Here is the input.
Amino acid sequence: MQDNDIVRFVSHLLEATRRTGLVLSNDTVSLLSSEASQGEAPFASLKTTLLNELSFLDADLFLFFDDFHFIKDPRILDLISSLLLAPIEHLHFVISSRQQLALPVARLRALGEIREFDAAMLKFSSNEAMEFMGARIDLPLTQVQMEHLWTKTEGWIASLQMVTIAMQGLSDPEAFLRQFSGADRSIADFLVEEVLNRQTEEVQRFLLATSILDRFNSDLCNAVLERRDSSSLIDNVEDSNLFVFSLDRERNWYRYHKLFADLLRKRLVDRFPDEAAIYNRRACNWLAENDYIADAIEHAFAASEPARAGALIDEISPTLLASGQTATLRRFAERLPESVAKSLPRLQLELAWENTILWRFDEARHALKEVRSKLVDRVSGSPVYPAEEPFGKEAELFRMKLAHREFLLNVFTDDIEHSLPAAKLWIAEFGDRDKFMGSSVGGILMMLNRETYQCEHTQAHAQELRNQFIEANAIYGTVFLDTVVGSIHFARGELQLAEQAYLQSRADAIRIQSESSTLATMPSAQLAQLLYEKNNLGEARQLVENLNGHPSEFRFVDSVIARYITATRLARTDGMTGKAHDALDLATRIADRYALPRLHAHVLAERVPLLISDGLCRDAERLILDPRYKGVAAVMSFSGHVDTAKECFAIATARIAFERGERSHALKILRRWLNWTRERQCLRSSIRLAVLLACLCYRSGDKLAARRTMIDALRWGSSGGFTRSFLDEGPTVVVILEELADLTTEANVFSIAYLSFLLSAFGRQIDKKKTPPIIQMQQGESEDARGLSEREIEILQLTSTNLVTSEIAAALGLAESTVKWYWKRIFEKLGVHRRSLAVRVARMRGLIA
Here is the structure.
């Protein structure tokens, strides 16, 4: 049943509410629309948003649900239960069901919030039945005859109504009542037969043929019966009270009472199976031609034509996916024979998209393989995917979608090496042909570049992608994009900008869905990681704890890594080593199950220091030999593909090598990686590597090298406020920092305030009476003033030659909005608010001529 689809159910509920004239906000509609392209709208968000909307009702709203026993979807039952229990003053429900409701009836009964009417209460009494019959038949019935009818029908109103229809025009009611007493057939079957027998042959044929239709109008009936006068027949049936109900005020669409339709349909199939198939086939054709595709599919199945049903499912699959009705799409697909389903490329592409999002990677691969096998190089010489003639004019669309789906599968399965060239190929091949697919590939390409130490991006490009997501009605895409932008700032050591991006992303996710939604978990996990770095442990812990109610598998691997690594570090900070190992064990199981190399690498980088700090160096050595960490052997090479997984392996290898006495080898590894990340301005990695290298240099006896390396870390970390990267390396950091505090030869290199802040975080204080300032600050000078990028210095230099914004943008090949964005950063770093003053300060410091 199609109504067992949470998106379809909520959509119909909203439409029914709208038709009452009551005004609701568009929050739920926007949620359904914004979630469409990523699969099913998340249930928690739908429930929360709908509850919020209905709570603002200012007039009574009565919602009627008939035949509610057909609803089996637990999410719909949960939604209605929540609405029933919510203290919404103006909301009322009338629910009919032939079965015990799977709703909180007992609780509502205890609260006095429900009125129940069972079958015994609904049936007519003897007097009510006599009054009902007397008003509808011309023949007077005796008390005995009436009691006989009432006993046989048990007061069932539908049966009594059929009796009135069957007795119309009878001259001998006693003969009818004697036959009616026969016990060999059910009352319903008997009455349907009697009702039909009282109709003309034309009406009988009309009733049987149209019983296959869940709803009908005159045009549809004409098509099914191949006639032109169905409108008059519908009027005749309605005038005869033959269990037909109008569905709209204009009296265009009708339906039969469900029980009556079921009985008619059973009679049709049992006695005239060939005609039933013909009627269903005709209904399918008319409904498909008039864009009632979902209804047409049901009739194709009823006509035993799976190929026709498959073709229609293939046609409607993009629409169902786009509208979020993925439950309906899955149910349709599951009813198809496997051979038919495999032959439908459009359906396979949509199923692949949903399965990828849901981390059903094997199913996604299988679906894509089926489509891929049908694309043979006959027509196109595409560098991405070839095309085959059977796809006709849509060959280009299929190639574009296939490339997009295969690219996304690579990304979700963390295949960074192959995803990066695939993204570039897709953009080169398909460009701007589809706004949603184009913006999703563009945003992921930014993420892939960050992961491979290409941390540059322009604000203008990010804004362009954001606009494309909005134009494609995929607002949720902006959440992903801002999360990626935040991660790039984080990688570059710009914690303030990263936090702003994460907060914006999370606020948008909460606005679009809810705080507990799956969408919000993506920025929340990475925000928690950043807050941990800033030593805001309480906020980070709260965010991580809020994630515990969500499945481990959600969205991109970045968020999974952030979630479990932050949980591990928080546990270690709290002195709960066992809990830290538990978090890493869970992350390992996820990485094993889905073969995620980056997650494995980050787990290794966190597990090794845990083991070493517990004195389990041999266990750490054995761990790095585990087959799942076979990538460790390649950490020394920067040729070919290089990403953060190699960095994690390098750090783990260096730690273990140092502990087993291979100190020069360990230091060499770290120095090479430090140079690599520093050259690419990936300062988050540089800081982590520098702090570790400083500690190992100090333990090796090279205190001078340790201090110099720590100074670099302080210089890079001060502008962003990096904290845990220092604290987590332990007591050796404290020793080096205290030695630096006693020195005066490193003046004008880093901020004494930042050094003091870090020592304070360790629980130490600097004796200010004995220690002169390590940096001489100018009045009004910002402590992060030395963090200007090369681009910002270029802008300052051009401004000093009296160029205006438009001229600077043209000279640097940037958008004017991008130049303005850079100016905001320059003002923040220099602590000024005018361009002329910024130029003057830059000259005083020797940054520009």
